[in-house]
Design goal:
Layout lengths: L2 H16 L7 E4 L10 E13 L7 E13 L2 H14 L4 E4 L13 E17 L11 E13 L1
Parallel strand pairs: 1-2
Antiparallel strand pairs: 2-3, 3-6, 4-5, 5-6
């Protein structure tokens, strides 16, 4: 697998671990396209942007954006899940080599971590109007920007 896909998987498992004490929350890899189970959290990788890293070298620093969508049953649940994700993203996210295998049968080696940019972390409340949908749910999106830092 390419490193970008390993990053995607690592973020997905990081969010799953974050909500392991609330097993009724469904964690989805990618934006949900089928029937929506509420509460659920989707993890979707977004843009990749690169910029020169070292003068006279072709090395580039890659910045990636992730969107974590929270679909909740009420305002309190939405806010608590959103705040929990925001607080967790103040730390680095470990990136594992899932080419070694997947837990629990294998403990993959850590390749490095995703360093979340402090100015690239936000939470946006998304208002869903009852006249536009048959099912009213509460939603927010946590957006963050990070770069890979090799171990």
């Amino acid at each position: 697998m390419l490193r970008e896909r390993l990053e995607d998987l690592s973020v997905n498992y990081y969010i799953k671990d974050l909500f392991s004490s609330t097993p009724f929350v469904e964690i989805v890899d990618g934006f949900p396209t089928k029937d929506l189970t509420v509460p659920s959290i989707s993890v979707e990788a977004g843009d990749i942007d690169t910029e020169p890293f070292e003068l006279g070298n072709k090395d580039r620093l890659s910045y990636r954006i992730w969107y974590i969508d929270v679909f909740a049953t009420n305002k309190t649940q939405r806010d608590e899940f959103g705040y929990q994700i925001l607080n967790a993203l103040e730390n680095s996210i470990p990136v594992y080599n899932y080419n070694d295998g997947f837990p629990p049968t294998v403990s993959p080696t850590q390749l490095g971590c995703l360093e979340v940019e402090p100015h690239g972390l936000s939470m946006e409340i998304i208002r869903v109007f009852p006249q536009l949908t048959g099912k009213l749910y509460w939603r927010c999106t946590v957006v963050y920007k990070a770069h890979f830092n090799q171990a």
